Structures are given as structure tokens and as C-alpha cells.
TrEMBL record:
The organism of origin for this protein: Franconibacter daqui
InterPro entries hit by this protein: RseC (IPR026268), SigmaE_reg_RseC_MucC (IPR007359)
Transmembrane domains' residue ranges: 74-98, 104-121
PANTHER family (alphabetical): PROTEIN RSEC (PTHR35867:SF1)
Keywords of the record: Membrane, Transmembrane, Transmembrane helix
NCBIfam families, sorted: PRK10862.1
Protein known as: SoxR-reducing system protein RseC
Signal peptide extent: none
Amino acid sequence: MIKEWATVVSWQGGEAVLSCDVKASCSSCASRAGCGTRVLNKLGPQTTHYITVPSEKPLTPGQKVELGIAESSLLGSALLVYMSPLAGLFIMAAVFQALFGSDIAAACGAALGGVGGFLLARGFSPTLSSRESWQPVILSVGLPPDILRVETPSSESR
């Protein structure tokens, strides 16, 4: 199970809207000064993702929840997204090379196969994402933000 913390934006009728912050993958590495991935992460937008998750328990805005998703669903979706365009690229490049016998035809076939594989993955993704085992679930719920309050003695009351 892959776990991540999210913040409740709203809860209504058994559905919780949660916000998940995008985390840069390279903030604590020892070689971060010379890392190209860190530079690319700085260029991209730092956005917040919103997700709707069923929750029978009432939640308050600002409350933290721990989300979990099965490793198999993450691996399956990554396999679909990355391997279908790659397989289409190689298969169509080989077919066009065999049919037309030129490198230009193979390059065109590779481009068509890559785009076709991407469209195939895009077409299958709604079907696969509707599976219940591929949906994130709430594993644990933190305290509401207004429950815990820490008071420190002020310097005037001494």
C-alpha cells in the first residue's frame, strides 16, 4: 500500500474533496546542487491536486487524512501509460519497415504507433480507473484542526 497525507477541503454527503500537494522528488539528496532533475522540477508548475474520495465519517475542512492506494494499481497504470506507446512505436516501426523498406517509412510508422499507443492508453484508462481496487481509500483520519489547542503562558501573567 502506498500512503500519502492529504488535507480535507470539504465533506458533503459521504464524499470528501481532498487536496494533495505536489512534492518535488529531489529536495533532500546529497547531490542536489548538480542534479538535472531538480532543475526540471523547479521549471514545472507547483500545483495542488484535488481528489474526491468516499468517506462515511464526517470530516471538517483542514483535517488531515492518510490516503492509500494499492501498489498493483499504481504499477498497472504506469505500465499502461508507458508501455502501450512504446510497444506501438516498435511494432508499427517494424511493420512500416517491412512493408516499405525505408527508414523514413519506419520513422513515420514509429510516430503513428507511438501516438496510437497513447490513444489506446487514453481509451483504456477510464475503464481501468473505475475499478474499485484502483481507487484511493482513506486509511486514517487525523484530529480536526480546532480540537487541539496549545496555550503558552504570556509574559504579562507572571
